[in-house]
Every structure is written in C-alpha cells, then in structure tokens.
Amino acid sequence: MTTMRQTAATEFAGRPGTAREWLDRARRVARLLAADAAERDRHPRPPHAEVRLLKDAGLVTLLGPKAHGGGGERWTTALRVCREVSRADGSIGQLLGYHYLWAWAVRFFGTEAQIAEQEAAYTRGGLFYGGAINPRDAHVVAVDEGDALRLDGRKSFASGGAVSDLTCLLAGLADGRPVFAAVASDAPGLRYNHDWDNMGQRLTESGSLSLSGVRVPWDAALGYTGKSARPLPYGSLSLLTLQLIMTNLYQGIAEGAMEAAAEYTRTTTRPWPYGGDVKESATEEWYILEAYGDFRSKLWATEALIDRVGEELSELLHAPRGAVTPQQRGEAAVRIAAAKQRIIKEGLEVCTRIFDVMGARSTASRHGFDRFWRNLRTHSLHDPVAYKQREVGRYALLGEPPEPTFYS
C-alpha cells in the first residue's frame, strides 16, 4: 500500500479534460489496486489508503462543478469509472460509486441554495462521502429541538462511513417525513461499530452505525425550508441511480474475474494429457476456448444493455430537476431492472466457471480468485433479484412500469 501511495503522488498530476481521459485514469487506479487486491482481501483493514488513492487521482470530484475545481463530468462517465475500479477491487468500486450517489443527494433532495453550498464545499475540499440510508432500518428518529434536529438510533449498514469525510444519513420525523442530511463523519454522537464481517466486499466498512444525540441544523436537512419540504419527482431518480451503480459494480467484478482468469490460463494452466488429443498449451484446449467465448459474449451483451440504460438515466440526471416525468422515470426503471437481473445471473456464472478453465491449482488461497464470486454474491443480495424480474415481467406483459419505492 505504501508503494500505491508513492506512485499515486507522482502519477496523477493535473486533471483529465475528457471522458476518455477520466476512464484512462480510472484504469491506472485499477492497476494499482489490482497489484495487491488478493492480499488486502485476505487481511482486510479500513481502506484509508485506498480512499486516499481515489482522492489523489481526482476521481472523488469527477462530478463536481468545474467552477470549484471538479471534473464537471456526466453520470455516464462516473458509472464507467466505477466499473473500471470494480474490475480490480469490488469493495473500492462500491465505495466510489456510493460516494457519487451521496454527493449527488443534495441535487436529489436539496434546495438550490443547499446545492450551491454543499457542492462547492465537497469539491473544493476533495471530500469523500459515506452513508447510512438503509430504509429498512426505521430506528433512527429525528426530534425537533428548535433550530436543530436531534438524531438517535442505529443503522445496520454504514458503507464507507468510517473512512469518509461526510456521512449521509436518513432519519424519520414523528409525523413520518424523511430527513436526509450529510454530517461530518467524526461528528459527536456518531459511533462506527466496525462489525462488518461478511464473506465479500470486505473492505467497504459496511458495518453498523449508532447515533446518540447527533445534531443537524434544520438548514442542513435536505429540501427543508422553514421546517417544510416539497419533494420533487426528480428525487425518485436516486433509487434508480443506486441500482445502476450496483449494476456497473457487478459488471466490473465479472469483467475482472474473466481477465484475471485469462491471465492465469495463459501463463499457468496446463493442457489435459488424458483426452486422446493432447495439446501443447491450455490455450489450445477446445473446451477452454469455448468457455472464454461464452464468457466474453455474455459480458459484451450485459455491457451493451448497461451502457444503453446508463446513457438514458444520465440524460434524466442532468436535465432540469423539474422536467423529469413519471413516464421517463418508469421507462428507465424497467430497463435498469432488466440490466441488473442479467448481470447478476451472467456475472455469477462467470465468477464460478472460471475455475473450470483455470484448473485445480487455481483454488490456492494465495491467488484469491474466489474473491470475485464472494464480492458479487454478497452485494447482489442487496435486494431480491426476483422482484427485478417481476418488474420487467409486469412491464412486458401489462405495460406497467415499476412503481417508485426505496428499491426500484
């Protein structure tokens, strides 16, 4: 990791000026992450150095306004950057994608004044977002104390919070209204419990978060003016954006699995000597060639669908907030659901079948090839894929787009 930091300090001078240059920078970041990805997965620690790398490379402010030193890029680029980083390390790809989502939360829910203030602050400071917004945890309550809100409770998941500068929180008022707010990650009353111990995405610091007397000024509650708020339909795009970030995360993990397996097959896998048709190299084995052809075809297909819907959603995200219609939202939602269900199915198959074409020695723990399956399997359980299939089915059969929920 020290080498990663030393390299980052000298390699990422200046700021990319085009989408292609941003993607090239993301690939360079991915190469640094890939060098010790298996080792970091075996011995996970809070990814402070990895987040520092994202900052040094400028990826953290890719979506930030150019006027404040940001990249001023579009969401199509941000999603591709997330995917490129995920090829090397799914955990860091997730943290970066979630950062983009939470940095955009002020646009989803905030007032024009809040947008101007918060985007300037995070972009100029190169600040990194974590978040604890799981809507299934209805245990964080917001109590009005005059000029501020007091937040108390617990969130089961706080991805990236412990290694972030700002944490995006979701709480509920007594009358049922939601409160979104970003607070300093070291604010008094926040306690990260460091209890993330899952089989995959080990470096996401996604453990639980306890809140005790966390104070949030009313003017920091996104969208509220005079203790009242008028939500825009644009805000419902936040859930679609999260789902498409996940979809790109899975595509990146699957691509990374295939690429790592291909390198191992080219350099290490031996041909099978007992088939009656002995080959000189594993790369001449017909069943190996057939398998990689299948992997590549399936991932090209999912990539094409993901990129198409990414362009569609990006148009909505960069449109005037008041211009988004329910029909546009519904059309994007159903295609995102379709893309997500396909990459989960195809990605898990690729991450499993790579061992068929690498051979028994590839299961040695030092290689860490199982991390690709563990990462994709772990995160793809975020919400049941069967409901995504049902959403697409209702649209295909009845012409009904998905209803906005916290997961669609």
UniProtKB/TrEMBL annotation:
Keyword terms: Flavoprotein, Monooxygenase, Oxidoreductase
Q: Which residues form the Acyl-CoA dehydrogenase/oxidase N-terminal domain?
A: 20-116
Q: Which GO terms describe its molecular function?
A: 3-methylbutanoyl-CoA dehydrogenase activity; flavin adenine dinucleotide binding; monooxygenase activity
Q: Which Pfam families match?
A: Acyl-CoA_dh_2 (PF08028), Acyl-CoA_dh_N (PF02771)
* Highest taxon in the source lineage: Bacteria
Q: Where's the Acyl-CoA dehydrogenase C-terminal domain?
A: 252-382
Q: Which GO terms describe its biological process?
A: L-leucine catabolic process
This protein's record includes keyword Acyltransferase? no
Q: Which InterPro entries match?
A: Acyl-CoA_DH_C, Acyl-CoA_Oxase/DH_mid-dom_sf, AcylCo_DH-like_C, AcylCoA_DH/ox_N, AcylCoA_DH/ox_N_sf, AcylCoA_DH/oxidase_NM_dom_sf
Protein name, entry field: Monooxygenase
Q: Which organism is it from?
A: Actinomadura litoris
Taxonomy, top ranks, is: Bacteria, Bacillati, Actinomycetota, Actinomycetes, Streptosporangiales
